[in-house]
Amino acid sequence: MTNQEVAANIKLLICDVDGVLTDGKIYIGNDGELFKAFNVKDGLGIKMLLANQIDVAILTARSSKILEKRTQELGITNVLQGQRDKVAGLKVLSEKTGVDPQNMAYIGDDLPDYAVIQKVGLRACPSDANDEIVKLCSFQSRFEGGNGAVRELAEFILKSQGKWEKTLDQMFLNPDPTAKHRY
Fold it and tell me: Which of 16, 86, 108, 178 is close enough to 116 for a disulfide, judged by CB 3.0 to 4.6 Å?
């Protein structure tokens, strides 16, 4: 099956965070506060998927209040933080959403993603992913983590499902003036 055929059946995109939705850097201030930068392009990609009834979930080994805030802004409701065993987290997401792992895409960048990425239908990574992860992936973004990799994957999924033109029309050409848009 081609990547496009696999993507045509994706119902859930699962994203790692550090190195995927961020550039992997963690900034710590003098008072111990953490800072992470998220890319609005990735946020818009997530919003476009959600607008097309393609669910998005977060599966990450770290926990942070920053991520809670960002996922609330984007409308992501399936958020599993502190998941050292990501395969167990995948099972939780599958049970909670009713989506078979073969109808899931996962985007990860490093060895903590090694086991879980092998369990899904569409395996994806940013351009700067660890070599072992790259070997497992059928979709490698042209962009680094935190710099549009999730957006590129979202567009690929929407185009593969024949939903791209409808998305452009409904979200950008003839948008609902009452819709809240935070990317």
Answer: 86
